[in-house]
Write a structure and sequence with these properties.
The chain has about 110 residues and is α+β, with helices and mostly antiparallel strands. The protein has helices at about 20-25, 45, 50-55; strands at about 1-5, 15, 60-65, 75-85, 90-100.
């Protein structure tokens, strides 16, 4: 995924979501702001790592179980890499996801 960084977490924007990630989420979120994503009650908590990468420019890695109640979702490893247009301020985050375990049907 490519995520555009903004001043507030709700304004972060999904510039591009790959096909496999969209299939895993059951929804292509390309073009959506974080605040427009349905089913996210605790926006700051869910996306806090994105904010940290956007503010600090420090890459982040996480291996975790899902926090959403999605149709078909497994555990994942996520790597977030900050990108900059001007070499100083983080303007975008490149996100790589790898899924593990069995898909869960609900």
């Amino acid at each position: 995924m490519l995520i555009d960084v903004a001043d507030t977490i709700g304004e972060f924007h999904v510039r591009l979501m790959g096909t496999e990630v969209a299939n895993e989420f059951g929804q292509d979120r390309t073009g959506m702001k974080f605040s427009d994503i349905e089913g996210v009650e605790n926006l700051d908590k869910i996306f806090e790592r994105y904010v940290r990468v956007g503010r600090t420019g420090i890459p982040d890695y996480e291996r975790a179980r899902p926090v959403s109640d999605l149709r078909s979702f497994r555990g994942y490893s996520r790597l977030m890499l900050p990108l900059s247009d001007d070499g100083e301020r983080v303007s975008m985050i490149l996100v790589g996801l790898a899924y593990f375990g069995r898909a869960v049907s609900t």
